[in-house]
Amino acid sequence: MPSALSALSPQRRRLVLVVVGLVGVLVLALAATLVVRALTRGRPVPQDRPGPVLLVPGYGGRTASLDPLAAVLRAEGRDVTIVSLLGDGTGDLDAQAGHLADVADDVLRTSGAPSVDVVGYSAGGVVVRLWVRDHGGDVQARRVLTLGSPQHGTSVAALGAEVAGGCPTACEQLLPDSSLLRRLNAGDETPSGPEWATVRSASDQVVTPTGSAALDGALNVLVQDACPSATTSHYQLPADAVVAATVRSTLGAGPVAAPEPGC
Length: 263
Description:
The protein is an alpha/beta fold and 263 residues long. Helices cover 42% and strands 11% of the residues.
């Protein structure tokens, strides 16, 4: 290499050195990511040590929708990251799960925490499940909470696809009998690793039927069980008082528990 470099002009020599340096940085970053995953694999996540919280937005990736939840968690002293989805948030949900894995790696590496808690809103809850199942989240997540997530699909996506003659990839994947959901729901709906909880509202007209948002093996909270008069819509879930109470009762240091009744 020295003799080859000496034959180059000063400008080309600097360019080669810059390129080599960049490659070295990328290799080190990849190695650090692999080390994080290797060190955490197979190690039980401490359930009494709440770490940073990742909030995953729904279809379309509107991060501002999760600001109310972020405020609740930060008031509790938690470190919160609202995850920006790839592209416009309507692309392949499995690719979004891979991106979530990268974000989780970065947060764990920079914080030094043993785990993360993750809240997935709407389609973001499906992304979180894909991450846990296929992208290493099973050894990084302590608690998973999903809000109004079409875990078994939604008839609204089916209607939209029928009327429009098709819809973006994520929409197609949220059809009730999509190949992605059939694979995701085959066997154990709540794989071992994190503790699981879901919240849904009987007034949700986006995820229909609303029972699609519940998961076998999870603590499943219906907003109206805690507040019978609630008319919380799908879009109001992140700012709902029952949801805020569920965040506190499921993401704390104690066992996962349903919120106390109240509106």
